[in-house]
Amino acid sequence: MAQPTQQAPVAQTLLESALDHGPGAEPLRRQLFQRLRQAIFDGRLVAGSTLPGSRALAEGLALSRNTVTAAYEQLVAEGYVVSDRQGTRVAALAQRPAGASTARHPAPAVPEVPAMAARLALIQPRAPRIGATPLALSPGMPALSQFPLAAWRRALDHAVLGGGPAALGYGDPLGELALRTAIARHLAVARGVRCAAEQVVITEGAQEALALCVRLLSNPGDVAWVEDPGYRGAKSALQAGDLRTVPLRVDAQGLVASESDWAARTPRLVYTSPSHQYPGGAVMSVARRLALIEQARRHGAWIIEDDYDSEFRHAGEPIGAMQGLVDGAPVLYVGTFSKTMFPSLRLGFVVLPAAVLDAVRVPLAEMLRGGQRHAQLAMAHFMDSGQFSRHLGRMRRLYRERQQALRAALAQHLALPHQTEGGHCGMHLLVRLPANCPDQAIAAAARSHGMAPSPLSGFAMRPQPQDNGLVLGYGNTPVELFEPLVQRLSLLAQAAMT
Predict the structure, then answer these.
(1) pTM
(2) What is the arithmetic mean of pLDDT over 237-250?
(3) What is the CATH number of domain 145-389?
(4) Strand partners, 201
């Protein structure tokens, strides 16, 4: 006689609202399972209570016995109930929080968010992206409409056909040898980098290359220097590695590191972009490069050289990489194809010093997995076939023309005091503005007009009065648009003046 009294609450719970038999409804076995599971969660079916037999419950709910049996089997499979010769009983789940409501319709609990890593609060947000189409004047965005898609498609076809089924599996953790060899060959000729193919490690863009440098050569709490104002991605990579990030100012010759800085704030890592500082555009003098290398050697520091967009030199000969200045320089050279090819390719690389290669070879094999094999093989073919060099030549000419046009438009139509800097390399200009022209407000207003200049103050960890201005990209913007865009930007700047 005990069994019917135990079964009654179950039937009453399930019959509070009828199961949905209509077209498009979930299967009845699924609805029944969800009702019973929720009753267990709510505490209406307590641990140890016995559920009705499948035949009895099927009759009570006017369901087929197979439907009830299927729901019970799912409850057993997920651990909500246990079934043996004594019947089907509610399992003992984790203890419910003290004071939790056992009402028939409890208010939904708001989950408590766990504490996040403190380092995440240090990472600065980027400006929001609007839509899939790049906005005008966006820094760091290449001329995507000018990319040779037909040649790239042929390179991909060559990679797929040549790689065969084997290329669908994991590859060398350090990257495809064909691409590493092509990169080493190109860097030796174009950038003066001294390296063998085995020193090149392929990464998912420059950001992963920076993070890899941090993981390989530093420990939490170590000091890292960064340029200020400087590349936000580098700061994020260092902060994510729990390093004490120290901003050092940049002048017309690049990173300024004094003797007192080396003595009082000795770094483990030094991040710099000597061939074309971002966003200021400074080129580090050879005297300062040699001094930085010597001090790094003396203090046991490593230099991360980010070559950024220095492939696009518009005046004079290309600036050689710092990595190749002297033998055995403590320099990790970081590069990417995001600017020379296109951002979604997500291929970058880091050239490791020969002195550390043997020590990190085994850890790298465990930390990395050889992926993107077809993209890597296609990139290698693109370089070996001469398409990459031809594409760089076309883009240099295009960006030189656009840089000159933007300079002319700024000189003619930006009707407020300003100073234009950079432009000898890369795809952007820096326009410094008076202190009463708030760069953050101007940039925000510009986005609503289809423009995406970056405020200079957003690149600084410790903004100074002179860190007020706009970083204007010209890579993705046609020449004929510069005059109307600058005219609009001038009006927005005047409206924002305080």
Answers:
(1) 0.81
(2) 95
(3) 3.40.640.10
(4) 350
